[in-house]
Design brief:
The complex is a heterodimer of chains A (about 350) and B (about 130). Chain A is an alpha/beta fold and about 350 residues long. Chain A has two domains: about 140 residues, Aldehyde Dehydrogenase, Chain A, domain 1, CATH 3.40.605.10; about 150 residues, Aldehyde Dehydrogenase, Chain A, domain 2, CATH 3.40.309. Chain A is about 30% helix and about 25% strand. Chain A has nine helices and 15 strands. In chain A, strands 9-8-10-7-6-11-12 form a seven-stranded parallel beta sheet, sandwiched between helices. In chain A, strands 4-3-2-5 form a four-stranded parallel beta sheet, with helices on both faces. Chain B is mainly alpha-helical and about 130 residues long. Chain B has one domain. Chain B has a two-stranded antiparallel ribbon. In chain B, β2 and β3 form a beta hairpin. In chain B, α2 packs antiparallel against α5. The chains are: A alpha/beta (about 350), B mainly alpha (about 130). Chains A and B meet through β1, α1, β3, α2 and β4 of A and β1, α1, α2, α3 and α4 of B.
């Protein structure tokens, strides 16, 4: 900034994390590790069903920490019942809430706290099948996106089919989906195409869609299907009905892919790849704290860096702001980068 | 880790105070703590799995009465094949990660056809900015 006035931005832990989770007892070991590694304190509140497991795990971890430099109170398991509302009110002491559990839990937490929440309530992922996409590739990607783990947040829920793909790649993909037991909730045009083209054994899988199907995270072998005329309509549908999690375009056109990836307002926008790629391990982050659909701080799959923030350090020699300015006799800030 | 029956406020205050200590510890001290946690859990395996079995038994009763879903019961089970080992290995995996900074590794290859790159916003031409 000026001679003997140096500004530096450094990474630091966020502070105190509140992790609220449901049944999974292994979360406690996982979160305790992530917290210690990232230098954050953590308060853990688990579901009552796994209390005995939590107590046993915590006792072991507590004894281990006693022999280390990490303060024992840095990781706390709260066993008191029914205290979630009180914890969520402690925005002065708790810096970030990480929910690990059902959508209902996340939604409840998001609407009941002033503390920032790292996570997402919904994963309503969509895929736009453009006419130039290779049919075999399209079928593979769509089947993986829908069926490899239907209950996951990064599973496909809505298939948008461009008119030009209705008679070509779409029936190939639909047949592959039906063969995997997927129920296709179709609008009138896509239903007509499938009823005319699918083998008789699969036509029972074609069901007329209700409007709500395009706003529903089915989390099961149910897929909403809709025809769209052009890419703009697909982008508009996704930005309006989606959950800003992960959305895909299948196309051979680089230009259309770039248009889609720039225009879709989601944490993950993919070209010719499965929605199921949305995962911290698959991204190579080494771990996953959660997947965020927030737009401030961490977005998408979040690794350890999501538990970090930064602060600014200034090393000066008594400088004051009134000495700096545009007028005569005033000093100017240098704003030069220092070598790292 | 403390097992806290204290009030939420007390727990949060203690956590806050500890966070200021923890934030200044060197990476070696934090990694040593993870090694210690891993060892302690390994030694307490039988005790923990026995406690988990008690949770599971109670949950199965509740599920039979229709008070709990079967999927929740299955998520509760630490004794399921590979789960315990995964849990322990996860601690060492986290320990061996690089100390976290804010930047995602600039170029990470996650499979032969998939690259992750950090690109600055200036890298986009204006007509691509959505």
């Amino acid at each position: 900034m000026d001679d003997n006035l140096e500004l530096e931005r450094v990474t630091c832990p966020i502070g105190v994390l509140l992790i609220i989770f449901e049944a999974r007892p292994e979360v406690i070991a996982n979160i305790a590790s992530l917290a210690v590694k990232s230098g954050n304190a953590a308060i853990l509140k688990g579901g009552k069903e796994s209390t005995e497991s939590f107590v046993a795990i915590s006792t072991a971890i507590s004894a281990a920490l006693d022999k280390t430099l990490v303060p024992n109170a840095a990781v706390q398991l709260v066993t008191t019942r029914d205290v979630i509302p009180q914890l969520l009110a402690l925005d002065q002491h708790i810096d970030l809430v990480i929910p690990r559990g059902s959508n209902e839990l996340v939604r409840y937490i998001k609407s009941n706290t002033k503390i920032p929440v790292l996570g997402h309530a919904d994963g309503l992922c969509a895929l736009y099948l453009e006419r130039s996409a290779d049919p075999a590739m399209a079928a593979d990607v769509i089947v993986d996106s829908k069926t490899s783990y239907p209950a996951a947040c990064n599973s496909l829920e809505t298939l948008l089919v461009q008119e030009g793909a209705l008679e070509t790649s779409f029936p190939v993909a639909a047949k592959a989906l039906a063969a995997k037991g997927v129920e296709l909730r179709c609008d009138a045009r896509t239903a007509a195409v499938l009823r005319a083209s699918l083998p008789a054994e699969y036509t029972a899988k074609v069901v007329d869609a209700q409007p709500a199907d395009y706003d529903t995270e089915h989390l099961s072998l149910v897929l909403a299907v809709k025809v769209v005329a052009l890419i703009e309509e697909a982008i508009l549908h996704i930005n309006t009905h989606g959950s800003h999690h992960t959305d895909v375009i299948l196309t051979a056109s680089k230009d259309l892919a770039e248009q889609f990836m720039a225009g879709v307002d989601s944490a993950g926008v993919y070209w010719n790849a499965s929605t199921r790629m949305a995962d911290g391990m698959r991204y190579g982050f080494g771990t996953e704290v959660g997947i965020s659909t927030n737009k401030i701080h961490a977005r998408g799959p979040v690794g350890l860096e999501g538990l970090m923030v930064y602060k600014y350090k200034i090393r000066g020699a008594g400088q004051v702001t009134s000495a700096y300015g545009e007028g005569e006799g005033k000093k100017r800030f240098k704003h030069e980068s220092l070598p790292l | 880790m403390s097992l806290s029956n204290s009030t939420p406020l007390e727990a949060a205050q203690a956590a806050k105070a500890s966070s200021h200590v923890l934030a200044t510890l060197p990476a070696s001290a934090r990694n040593d703590a993870l090694t210690a946690i891993h060892a302690a859990l390994g030694e307490a395996r039988d005790v923990i799995l026995a406690a988990n079995a008690r949770d599971l038994e109670a949950a199965q009763k509740a599920a039979a009465d229709g008070q709990l879903s079967q999927s929740l019961v299955s998520r509760l089970d630490l004794g399921r094949k590979g789960k315990w080992e995964d849990m322990l290995k996860g601690i060492l995996d986290v320990r061996d990660l690089e100390d976290p900074g804010l930047c995602i590794p600039p170029l990470a290859i996650i499979s032969c056809h998939l690259l992750i790159t950090c690109r600055s916003w200036e890298g986009h031409s204006p007509d691509q900015v959505g």
